[in-house]
Write a structure and sequence with these properties.
Elements lengths: L7 E2 H7 L5 H9 L3 E3 L2 E2 L6 E2 L7 E3 L2 E2 L8 E6 L22 H4 L3 E2 L7 E8 L2 H8 L7 E7 L5 H9 L1 E2 L6 E2 L3 E6 L2 E6 L6 H8 L4 E9 L2 E2 L8 E3 L2 H5 L9
Parallel strand pairs: 9-15
Antiparallel strand pairs: 1-4, 2-3, 2-5, 5-6, 7-9, 7-17, 8-9, 10-14, 10-15, 11-12, 13-14, 15-16
Bound molecules: uracil.
């Protein structure tokens, strides 16, 4: 998304914020659905600058104007597909403001429909690359609930590496911490298809529940299931990114 220039016409600003086509944004103003600082906007051509907007309400909903790229995290619940065109379940995108769809916000990688936890979204292709490129080795930590009790052998096996079908090389966990009899925290740096489930199956156990706790320095912390939030400037800087306008 381009940064909004000072004095941009209101309907174009609304379009840049994801409120729809130019026509739809003109209509929002014409129908009296846009309020700036408590006053209904009357002219869709009126110039606006983000810095001068105290409070923006569109169609009854407050909106914090976006500048530059969008970066956010969701605590994904069970039963949502990481897809714009889900087949059998609701889409993770239905948990985000609809305006983000118009801005091209996309998930950074995928979680399976029954996997819960940290899922990132952005409009920034470079950010997607930085987090998903196999060359970057970004650590991803999962809480894994197992069918059978954890054994020393299982942990050794995961750390030594297992062969996944169709792969010639072993894939190994970076670290495995035993939480309780049937729970481990396992960190991997690759991002292969169904990797955690396949690794556990190859090591003779079975994943019953899978929850992603963190990706690199980013962790869910207090974010409730189904909730999302923007990444902070500090979190972005940990990956060499900033939420500066382009
Ligand atoms: N590994 C899996 O098996 N599934 C996920 O959703 C993520 C990692």
């Amino acid at each position: 998304m381009r940064a909004t220039m000072p004095g941009m016409e209101l309907y174009r600003f609304l379009q840049q914020q994801g409120f729809g086509s130019r026509k739809e944004c003109r209509q929002l103003v014409e129908y009296g659905l846009v309020e700036i600082d408590g006053e209904p906007a009357e002219d869709y051509r009126q110039p606006v600058a983000i810095a001068d907007i105290g409070e923006l309400v569109v169609d009854g909903e407050p909106w914090t104007p976006l500048t530059g790229h969008v970066y956010l995290m969701l605590n994904k619940p069970d039963g949502y597909e990481t897809s714009h065109k889900p087949m059998h379940n609701p889409s993770v995108y239905s948990l985000l403001p609809w305006q983000f769809g118009n801005l091209g916000v996309s998930a950074v990688g995928r979680l399976d429909v029954d996997t819960t936890g940290l899922l990132l979204f952005t409009t920034d292709g470079q950010f997607v690359h930085a987090l998903t490129s196999p060359k970057r080795h970004v650590p991803k930590c999962y809480e894994v609930t197992l069918k059978h009790p954890v054994t020393d052998d299982l942990v050794k096996h995961l750390l030594a590496g297992v062969f996944l079908k169709d792969d010639n090389e072993k894939v190994a966990a970076d670290s495995v911490a035993v939480v309780d009899e049937i729970t481990i925290h396992m960190t991997i740096t690759q991002g292969k298809y169904h990797q955690v489930k396949r690794m556990l199956a190859a090591a003779g156990n079975r994943v019953m529940e899978l929850h992603r706790l963190s990706m690199g320095a980013l962790s869910l912390e207090a974010l409730d299931e189904g909730q999302w939030r923007f990444l902070s400037e500090t979190e972005l800087q940990a990956f060499g990114f900033g939420a500066k306008p382009e």
